[in-house]
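Batch manifest, entry 17 of 40.
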Amino acid sequence: MIALLILIGFVFLIGGAEILVRGASGLAQSFRLSKVLIGLTVVSFGTSAPEFAVSLQSGFAGQPDILMGNVIGSNIANILLILGLTSIFVPLIVHESLIRMDVPIMIGLSGLLYLLILDGQLVRLESALLAILLIAYLGLLFWMNKKGSGASVDLNQAAEQEQETPIWKDLLFIGVGLIGLVLGARWLVAGAVDVAEYFGVSELIIGITIVAIGTSLPELATSIVAATRGEKDIAVGNVVGSNIMNILIVLGVSGAILPVDIPIQASSIRIDLPFMLLVAICCFPVMLGGFTIHRWEGMLLFGWFVAFIVYSVLSVKSPDAAASMEFWTYRVAGPLTLLAIFGGGFINYWLDRKAKASAQ
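Output type: structure tokens
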């Protein structure tokens, strides 16, 4: 029954992602909105719904470790798993507006969250601050779209495409797609948590690994479907927007609603949150290099996701092996990876600028 539940959840995820991308693309064309904006708002908000639902449920059920682990693990998985795996299939083009505004905002919010939890908890007042920042962020997005600062739909290209679908049909697609995503993620997580609890894994590890991966599957499905359909702005904007929404909605809104403060484990302060912040920072050079996430960068990101999951499991099952892995990561693998990412990113950026200058 658990295997059947996971299978049905996967089917709902893929179907929901396909319908959601189709509706979001149609809505962008109908309203002449930037597809980046749609990816950062409608799609990322919808694909963050599983995290929000799981966090509220675990918070009211007295399982705050799952709540915090879900957000940390999802934000790590969004970049390392989703951008990594998607760019292995299809190298992703990054719109310049993401580099100028949204990626720095994602990095800034990750740093702010780390500062807020250094005292070992996220109090309701701090969650309310994040919720207020959500309103400011959404207002900024729509203001910039109105000014025309973001990427807009090419009206000539739109005219050459098929006739626009009615708005009500686009909204229906989005609604049905979101329902499929939420139900699919819920059934997948329910089956995965049952399996994890059977093997006696802690709630924090369940939140960081099983629940985080399960609730990130909508983003993964949506990004892969969007990329293969040629909607690469939605694919990348979805990941960046989802990370921002996870902090502002899942921790901000749900934290303000919950009747208690959210405690933070020492291991999260020492390892998990700094790693989440570092992963967010690495997005900048990766995306800046020719405004493209190349296949080799995708393989590097995905490799670090596998390493993170292995470390999370070893930290519970074999602390000595986890300590050894941590040592080699800090001394060898980590510095070499940062050198490759930052060096490769800026070299690709310089080559891209040189090529554009020569073309002119």
